[in-house]
Amino acid sequence: MSDILDVWLLGEKVGVLGQERGRMRFSYEEECTSKPEHMALSVSMPVQEKHYGDDITRAFFSGLLPDDLVRHRLAKLLGVSEKNSFGLLEAVGGECAGAITILPAGQELAQENADDVIALDEEGVFDMLATLRRRPLMAGENNVRLSLAGAQDKVAVRTGVKGEILLMRGGAPTTHIIKPLITGAHDIVDSVHNELFCLKLAAAVDLPTVQTLIGYAREEPYLLVKRYDRTRKNDQILRSHQEDFCQALSVPPEHKYENEGGPTIEHSVGVLQTYSIRPAQDRMVFMRLAIFNFLIGNADAHGKNFSLLYEGGKPFLAPAYDLFSTAIYPNLASKMAMKIGGKYNPDHVFLRHWMKLVPDTALAQKALKKEIEALCSNVLEKALEIKSELERNDVNSEIYNQIIAVIKKRYDQIQM
């Protein structure tokens, strides 16, 4: 195992990630530090000559890895300690979220070739989903080197011109993320249908949201989510940089929940106010997302589920992703990831608690109340339409009615 890794951003080597006695450090290349306007890896890590120490370095780079049980399984598979972020990134850092690629020291960025592409038919996709349950992120399988944050099994793929699924090797860029059904002891029924419904509902009420559709392999459903940090240009796949709010605030991923020291709603609004190129617009969108997550019963809207997306080196709020109604599953915690007006328990949140999130002025209070009323009504109306649309297309699930019941309950509650 090496103690030095090269860090590439948008196809340029920008720095060196090192580890000594378990402590990580990051240094920008001299070519970067000589250009004050050079794009940084993170708003928490501006370009500078001095190296960044363990706290800031670990918070950012650990955020590129999966969370919780997936990280534990990945570490066990690779024979690396789950706390060894450096070792895990050495193994799977070829294709990360955003425009970052992590390679062994001295290794050049590989040019993509035909051998990097494995075309999968329906049977191949089914086998990949089965492998994914044994090998998180497909690590060690067919030279696949990719890393995705999050607590759920998933794999990044590319889609072909005819929509076929392509597994990419050696860190080649991908275009979509496949999320299979969640299995295990929590009785999370129809997770694919749940997220599909919530993402379609968000788009229907004009929230900027990732594009998604449902696919099947041997009748097993999976979610195919278009990556917002990848674009196609002719025959090329181009990376765009991004970072989540935990990375932007130097919060380690294991502290992503507010009660563990993670970002609050106020911190999140502050990130947008300080760094976004369109702060007023993004603050409003974020508040609408907070209201939406409350309405659908998503208690897992933590700091890693909101991100900054970069365009021309300038950040703004990324489209919404990982929208999921946790409230319909009795075995999942109901405690919200971020407090609303001082309350973690959604049953204790009323209109007056939302008012605490904006300045105590008549104008601000009136604007938020108007936004809540309009969004609540629209979400309920569109939820019924989305249910009908999915059922017309034979994408059926009992959970649609359960999510709508949560929305109706929260709709009444938020007016009080």
* CATH architecture group name of the largest domain: Orthogonal Bundle
Radius of gyration: 21 Å
Give the SSE string. Answer: EEEHHHHEEHEEEHEEEEEHHHEEHHH
Largest sheet: 6 strands, antiparallel
SS-based structural class? alpha+beta
Task: Find the count of extended strands (DSSP E, 2+ residues).
Answer: 15
Mean pLDDT metric = 90
Summed up, the helix count is 12
User: Which CATH first-tier class of the largest domain would you pick?
Assistant: Mainly Alpha
What is the name of the CATH topology of the largest domain? Phosphatidylinositol 3-kinase Catalytic Subunit, Chain A, Domain 5
Brief descriptors of the model:
416 residues, alpha+beta, Phosphatidylinositol 3-kinase Catalytic Subunit, Chain A, Domain 5, 3 domains, six-stranded antiparallel β-sheet, four-stranded antiparallel β-sheet, 15 strands, 19% strand
Walk me through this protein's architecture.
The protein has 416 residues and is an alpha+beta fold. The chain folds into three domains: 4-99, no CATH class; 114-233, no CATH class; 245-414, Phosphatidylinositol 3-kinase Catalytic Subunit, Chain A, Domain 5 (Orthogonal Bundle), CATH 1.10.1070. The chain has helices at 30-33, 54-62, 68-78, 85-92, 122-134, 191-204, 245-248, 265-275, 279-296, 351-355, 362-392, 399-414; strands at residues 4-9, 12-20, 23-28, 100-104, 117-120, 155-159, 165-168, 176-180, 212-217, 220-226, 230-233, 236-239, 242-244, 307-311, 314-317. Strands 5-7-6-8-10-9 form a six-stranded antiparallel β-sheet. β6 and β7 (165-168) form a beta hairpin. The longest helix has 31 residues, at 362-392.
